[in-house]
Amino acid sequence: GAVVSQHPSWVICKSGTSVKIECRSLDFQATTMFWYRQFPKQSLMLMATSNEGSKATYEQGVEKDKFLINHASLTLSTLTVTSAHPEDSSFYICSARASRTSYNEQFFGPGTRLTVL
Amino acid sequence: GNSVTQMEGPVTLSEEAFLTINCTYTATGYPSLFWYVQYPGEGLQLLLKATKADDKGSNKGFEATYRKETTSFHLEKGSVQVSDSAVYFCALQTGANNLFFGTGTRLTVIP
């Protein structure tokens, strides 16, 4: 199946710093990428949807100035957590949808665990 | 609104035991229903899906039937293996984009 990678797999940072997480589709072109957040023992919550070459669409309650999403190419999307605080500590998961699938299957990355001290 | 309620885990079974993980949903319209599996250190993978009422999705010995009358999509497997140990997520999708996930159920199969 299609492969999506995320980098880094885990990161620890100090409060107030910014962290960038990369999501790459390795063997297909993704016109749409999704960013999810997962708290312990909770479901994945969609944060935003990004289409290549255009601005991301954020879900209600997600601060677009805090969670900057860039989808500059068909194989790369980045999520930057700006001025991170301990409450931003979470598991961030991206997914990508291939451009020519006949159904809307999303392929998921392995996730990035962010810990803000 | 849309939501998925999934049986809480963790679930521990002996090898060759029968597995059921319950999933019920609330949705506007007619959703597609999915089961995803996440093996340790890997991303979520689509396990099976069903797109309309009474459809049965199946893969790798797992099955789930889309029951509109009970708004359910329970996952079953007749004989689990150690390699089935993973976290299982039930999900629904309406329209072209959003997936709504359950909280996930961790399954551990012991030899």
Structural summary, described in words:
The complex is a heterodimer of chains A (117) and B (111). Chain A has strands at 4-7, 10-13, 19-25, 30-38, 44-51, 57-58, 67-73, 76-81, 90-98, 106-108, 112-116. Helices cover 0% and strands 55% of the residues of chain A. The model of chain A has no long low-confidence stretch (mean pLDDT 90). With 117 residues, chain A is an all-beta fold. In chain B, a hairpin with a 2-residue loop joins strand 7 (56-59) and strand 8. In chain B, strands 2, 5, 6, 10, 11 and 12 form a six-stranded mixed β-sheet that branches. A four-stranded antiparallel β-sheet of chain B has the order 3-9-8-7, with no helix packed on it. Chain B has a two-stranded antiparallel sheet with strand order 1-4. Chain B is mostly beta strands and 111 residues long. The relative contact order of chain B is 0.34. Chain B has strands at 3-6, 11-14, 19-21, 23-26, 32-38, 45-50, 56-59, 62-65, 75-77, 86-93, 99-101, 105-110. Helix content of chain B is 0%, strand content 50%. Chain B contains no helices and twelve strands. Classes of the chains: A mainly beta (117), B mainly beta (111). Chain A binds chain B through residues 1, 4, 6, 32, 34, 41-44, 46, 49, 93, 95, 104-111, and chain B through 4, 6, 36, 41-46, 89, 93, 96-104.
Describe the structure using short key phrases:
heterodimer; A: mainly beta; B: about 110 residues; mainly beta; six-stranded mixed sheet; about 0% helix; about 50% strand
